[in-house]
Amino acid sequence: METKGTLQHLEFEIPARGIIGLRNNVLTATAGEAVMAHRFKGYEPWKGNIPGRLHGVLISMDKGSTTAYAIDKLQDRGRFFVDPGVEIYEGQIVGEHIRDNDLTINITKGKQLTNMRASGTDDNSRIAPALKFSLEESMEYIQGDEYIEVTPKSIRMRKINLREQDRKNKKG
Fold first, then answer.
1. Residues 73, 124: contact at Cβ < 8 Å?
2. Which residues pair with 158 in a beta bridge?
3. Cα–Cα dist 172/125, whole Å
4. Each residue's pLDDT tens digit, 120-162
5. d(Cα 32, Cα 114) in Å, to the nearest integer?
6. Which fold, 57-112+125-171?
7. Cα torsion 100, 102, 103, 108: sign
8. Which residues, in sequence order, are bridge partners of residue 148?
9. Of the ranges 11-15, 28-32, 71-75, which is most confident?
10. Element (H, E) at 72
11. Cα(50)–Cα(140) distance, rounded to whole angstroms?
């Protein structure tokens, strides 16, 4: 660590696998002021695990189109990576859970419609904007039981075992 005028110059030795996702965190922490450069030093023995994310994920339990109603009702469970009207499938990661465990949710559920209407009883959906990940951010985010799908139109994250029953059998 060395001071150069109003700037701090820091040098670290970290494994190459530790660089994935580091740039975004450093830029966020320094309000975009950081300048990063890295160079391969050499091979060294394994030094241990690099900690991953602290929260679990929200996983779709069904295929179909996401609805604003379902996203609105489930916002207290976490932050979403998909907008309303997006086609999803079973096993796709659609958000980040507020707790440390994974939660399977039905994000395709629509509002039950009836013939009866009362003045002022319909709720207006207030949906937070979906979080969008770059490929590097997705690589940093996933855990050992998850994949990234890269297509010409999108980058999606999913569980390796798409069916919930298969994921439960794998754990037990």
1. no
2. 92, 147
3. 39
4. 555 566 788 999 998 988 988 898 899 999 999 999 999 999 9
5. 51
6. OB fold (Dihydrolipoamide Acetyltransferase, E2P) (2.40.50)
7. positive
8. 157
9. 71-75
10. helix 68-74
11. 11
Assigned token pair, 158: 């999913």
Query: Where are the domains positioned within the chain?
Result: 1-42, 57-112+125-171
CA distance 154 to 9: 37
Identity of the residue numbered 66? T
What's the Cα-to-Cα distance from 29 to each of 23, 37, 50, 138, rounded to whole Å?
10, 17, 19, 19
Residue with tokens 């855990």: 143
Give CA–CA dist 45/81, Å, rounded: 37
**Whole-number Å distance between alpha carbons of 28 and 141:** 16
